[in-house]
Specification:
By secondary structure, this protein is an alpha/beta fold. The protein starts with 5 loop residues before the first helix and ends with a helix. It comes from Undibacterium oligocarboniphilum. This is TlpA family protein disulfide reductase.
Length: about 170
């Protein structure tokens, strides 16, 4: 036969165990939905200006890995320019990172003849591509929020209507 205090002990134990499971479940759910942070990197644009990921915090950022030899990159570039022009005044920054195999003179020529309005950076040793998760395919575009969290990674040309919605929401936040 159980002592009179046993049901209370069992109830208290059940409540504590239930709370512990709830907390652990919440932490597990949060870990599944936590967004990765932008790597701690420094970009150097074609003018020699350096921009660190820390300096870019507080802005919505697109980082687009591309190559002059990539037909999809070249095809999407006018839409990327339109996207930049549409959202830059609202706080969007954009860095086009040329892949390590792209000859710098090709990149410079492309950026100048197309009058690209955003920063274009070289990645001669491939360190930026490596820091962003071994980027191998072009185009690969990252959308990063004001806190430095990666919101989306696009491999290939993005759906621009989806991209614009994502940017609008990130810029409002």
């Amino acid at each position: 036969m159980l002592a009179p205090s046993s049901p209370r002990k069992f109830t208290l134990f059940s409540v504590i165990a239930g709370l512990a499971l709830l907390i652990l479940g919440g932490l597990f759910w949060q870990s599944l939905h936590a967004r990765p942070l932008m790597p701690d990197v420094t970009f150097t644009n074609l003018k020699g200006e350096r921009m660190s990921s820390q300096q870019l915090r507080g802005k919505v950022l697109m980082v687009n890995f591309w190559a002059t030899s990539c037909s999809t990159c070249i095809a999407e570039m006018p839409r990327m320019v339109e996207t930049y022009n549409k959202y830059h005044a609202q706080g969007l920054e954009y860095i086009g990172v040329a892949m390590s195999y792209d000859p710098p003179n090709y990149v410079l020529n492309y950026a100048e003849t197309r009058q690209l309005p955003f920063h274009v950076a070289l990645d001669p040793q491939g360190k930026l591509a490596q820091a962003f998760g071994e980027v191998k395919l072009t185009p690969t575009t990252y959308v990063i929020d004001k806190q430095g969290q990666i919101l989306k990674r696009y491999v290939g040309e993005p759906s621009f209507s989806e991209l614009h919605t994502l940017l609008e929401n990130a810029l409002k936040a």
